[in-house]
Write a structure and sequence with these properties.
By secondary structure, this protein is mostly beta strands. Helices cover 14% and strands 37% of the residues. The radius of gyration is 43 Å and the shape is elongated.
């Protein structure tokens, strides 16, 4: 009996303890629930958390601050047929641009600069035609917070293009009087923009300037003859340049050449002698025959612009009627577009040279028919001359040759040359 009562008392005690623990757990749960309801949970919103959105007692995080700066890029994203000049602009409001990157589809960067106030960016030159560009720009506000914008667009495909044919070959060597001459196949109405797209640089840093002859030709030269050994490069940056309304350039290339030894020559109409100078010192002297009294030779500095072992000379091509037609004139070197040459002459006796002017305006030197004798004056002069060498005629009764008649801009003052 005592044993049964004791067992019953122990069971009752265990039930009492379990009931007490349950009541305590419920009480604690009620307290925690009340605390949660007052503080708000991390994943729920509550008006009691405050209108400023700051974290409540539960320690919840706030939204990241947003930059007040904004970036604007023109043209709009995905635009096509975009003009190559004036269309690309990047600007910032309520902040300053810190970085602008514009690249073409090959990853080549477009040069440009952020303005001093950080408010805008524009490219340094024109964009290429038919090209897709990507733009990335970043700006910062007064609090140091950044914002960024990215776009892409494609430039126009022109219906009409203009090409410039130039007179130099990459890697070639020319004389000290060589002028870089570019002839366009269509008239150029915006000469300033086109000129800006063409530069000629020299390894010794000498200034090189361009001069327009009409609306389809521009030539480049330094103030004085090139120094021997100078490395010269023609830079064509014409792709995207609008040369005339609706007419665009397409060329984007560099052409490099070298200036050879210094050789200049002087043909004196009075003495009838050709003096050849190397590095400013007299090197060779040959008797010559210049233009006769009715067909005088131009005065002035003339540049050899082409060489031919034999030349077909026809008086009809220079408006002299049927005065002559010689198909095999040896060792011809053109000095003007109008037909002035330094060339060999085999049809006159050697006694003429140095004593009598008998040509139709050319500089003639003794030669043999076919030009096969390398020891004649004409052969030596031809073999030792470069395209770009200068032949100056002095003391002729004729006028100074027009600077546009061949590569003869050396007959124009430097000030006049640079004025156009």
């Amino acid at each position: 009996m005592d044993t049964v009562d004791t067992a019953c008392d122990q069971a009752a005690s265990r039930r009492s303890r379990r009931t007490a623990k349950g009541l305590l757990a419920l009480a604690l749960g009620a307290v925690l629930l009340g605390a949660t309801a007052c503080g708000g949970s991390a994943g729920a919103s509550s008006d009691k958390g405050g209108s400023d959105g700051k974290a409540g007692a539960s320690g919840s995080t706030s939204k990241a601050p947003v930059s007040k700066a904004s970036v604007s890029i023109s043209p709009k994203n995905g635009a096509t047929g975009v003009n190559t000049s004036g269309a690309l602009k990047v600007s910032a409001a309520q902040g300053k641009l810190t970085k602008v990157t514009v690249t073409d589809s090959h990853g080549t960067a477009v040069e440009g600069a952020i303005s001093a106030d950080g408010g805008s960016w524009v490219p340094a030159g024109v964009l290429h035609t038919k090209t897709r560009y990507s733009v990335s720009a970043t700006a910062v506000d007064a609090d140091g917070l950044n914002t960024a914008q990215q776009t892409s667009f494609t430039t126009l495909n022109p219906k009409s293009v203009n090409y410039g044919n130039f007179n130099i070959n990459s890697g070639s060597t020319y004389g000290v009087g060589m002028e870089v001459s570019i002839h366009f196949n269509k008239p150029v109405l915006d000469q300033a923009a086109t000129h800006k797209g063409i530069t000629v640089t020299a390894s010794n840093g000498v200034e090189v300037a361009g001069h327009w002859f009409g609306n389809q030709r521009i030539d480049f030269r330094p103030e004085n003859y090139w120094a021997a050994g100078t490395k010269v490069t023609l830079h064509l940056r014409l792709d995207g340049v609008q040369m005339s309304p609706g007419v665009y350039g397409q060329q984007d290339k560099d052409v490099a050449f070298t200036i050879g030894r210094s050789q200049t020559s002087v043909a004196d109409n009075k003495s009838k002698m050709l003096k050849i100078y190397r590095d400013g010192k007299l090197y060779k002297t040959y008797p010559t025959s210049l233009g006769d009294a009715e067909h005088t030779t131009y005065n002035g500095k003339m540049v050899i612009e082409e060489k031919s072992l034999t030349v077909d000379m026809d008086s009809r091509t220079v408006n002299l009627g049927n005065a002559y037609r010689i198909k095999d004139v040896p060792h011809g070197m053109r000095l003007s577009d109008s037909g002035t040459f330094a060339h060999g002459n085999y049809w006159r006796p050697t006694s003429v040279f140095g004593h009598e002017n008998t040509s139709h305006g050319c500089v003639g030197l003794h030669d043999v028919k076919g030009g096969g004798d390398p020891n004649t004056p004409a052969a030596w002069f031809y073999n030792h001359s470069l395209i770009g060498d200068v032949v100056e005629v002095v003391n002729s009764p004729d006028k100074v040759i027009d600077p546009s008649n061949g590569l003869n801009g050396w007959n124009m003052s430097w000030a006049t040359w640079k004025a156009n």
